[in-house]
Amino acid sequence: MWFAQPPVPMLERLLAARLHLDPCGEHDGPLRVVPASHQRGVVSPEEAVRRRGADVACMADVGDVLLMRPLALHASSRASGDSRRRVLHFLWAPPSPGDGLDWPVNAVPLPRAGKEA
Which residue positions in the chain have pLDDT lower than 50? Predict the structure, then answer.
């Protein structure tokens, strides 16, 4: 399957939600985000490195949901202990990407309730 980086107007419409199944403190490898970086569009790798010191750790309790725009400069930290950091990551996008494109869909249909697989 071919992949490409969508244009900035499309990326600006995406929303990611991270549902924490475990607590995530300073030593649990929290997500690190550069505040307001999603407003700068796509930045070069050099710019991302320059802004690295401006990132903040996003701590979370069990059940917390972190919402972010995928354009935000972000990275996961490494856990410094034996703790778990399980997160469910969801991405919302507009129903159609536009420009004559379609979102990829699962090619294998899921079994329906009450039917044998």
Answer: 117
Per-residue tokens: 35: 């505040």
Q: Which of 106, 94, 84, 108 is nearest to 28 (CA)?
A: 84
Amino acid 79: pLDDT: 84
Per-residue confidence (pLDDT) for residue 90, from 0 to 100: 92
Cβ proximity of 103 and 93 under 8 Å: yes
Q: Two tokens at 100?
A: 């004559």
Token pair, residue 71, equals 């354009």
Tell me which H or E stretch contains 50: helix 45-50
Q: How far apart are the first and last CA of the chain?
A: 26
Nearest CA to 11 out of 94, 104, 75 is that of 94
Q: How many CA atoms lie within 13 A of 77 on its CB side?
A: 22
